[in-house]
Amino acid sequence: MTVALPAPAPSPRRRRLSAWQRLLADRAVLLGVLVLLLVVVSALGARWIAPHNPNAQDVSRRLLPPLSPGHILGSDELGRDILARIVYGSRVSLIVGFVSVAIAGTIGVLFGLVSGYSRSAVTIVIDWLTNVQLAFPFILLAIAVVAVTGSGLRNLVIVLGVTSWPVYTRITRGTVMGLREREFVEASRATGGSTVHILLRHVLPNTLAPLLVIATFEVARLIVAEAALSFLGLGVQPNTPSWGSMLADGRGYLDTAWWLATFPGVAIVLVVLGINLIGDWLRDEFDYRL
Prior knowledge:
Elements: H1 12-25, H2 27-44, H3 46-49, H4 82-117, H5 121-135, H6 138-149, H7 153-162, H8 166-179, H9 183-190, H10 195-203, H11 208-231, H12 243-250, H13 259-286
Helix pairs in contact: 2-4, 2-13, 4-5, 4-7, 4-8, 4-11, 6-7, 8-11, 9-10, 11-12, 11-13, 12-13
């Protein structure tokens, strides 16, 4: 009689190798990584990549079509180079997307850890604040706050970060509530571990996987939100190139100069698509049900 022995668990190196192999085999996520890397390199090297100053005006060369000499993607109604403005506009999108997510994630995870682990009145207050903020449509709340605080890149980042934390709080709270009665948490509590030690050492690491997936999708959502606010004139200052403000400037020339709105729109679509493809891959990697 033969007894089947359980298969040995794969080593961490083997698991990392298989994840790397799955990444290389997934053409969709490779496309997303390529697009995101292209945008990051363009944002970091905008000074050397952009063919012109994005704010340099030349009315004598206004509304030039794509593939014109000196203007690969054409020029706008003031003679400014479209390619240069798209390259510099990638800085605004990336700053708003990643910094706002960092702010929202920090606030949301902190509130989620406290409300999920504590059984005090603080939990009730945090839950009430979360429900109140979720009751307001996100874009309307952002418009109202920006209208009060004023436009500008710094205010825009803060507003989008402060208005986006509830999703992190909800996810963190649900995960923490499922972990606070687990054996390893009880063991740490029984050996005299402080609440801060338990949260940071045992609870927080077990909540990072779903938070990373959500943060990836939130970057794409906030990039679209920044473009929408800039389109409405509530984003960055007019002299700062932004994909949303370029869309707003080109909407009046759709019949005569389609490239003014088409190319920044394509840039938004490609960046958001690339980030979402990466988010889908991260979800498949971290979701044990898949």
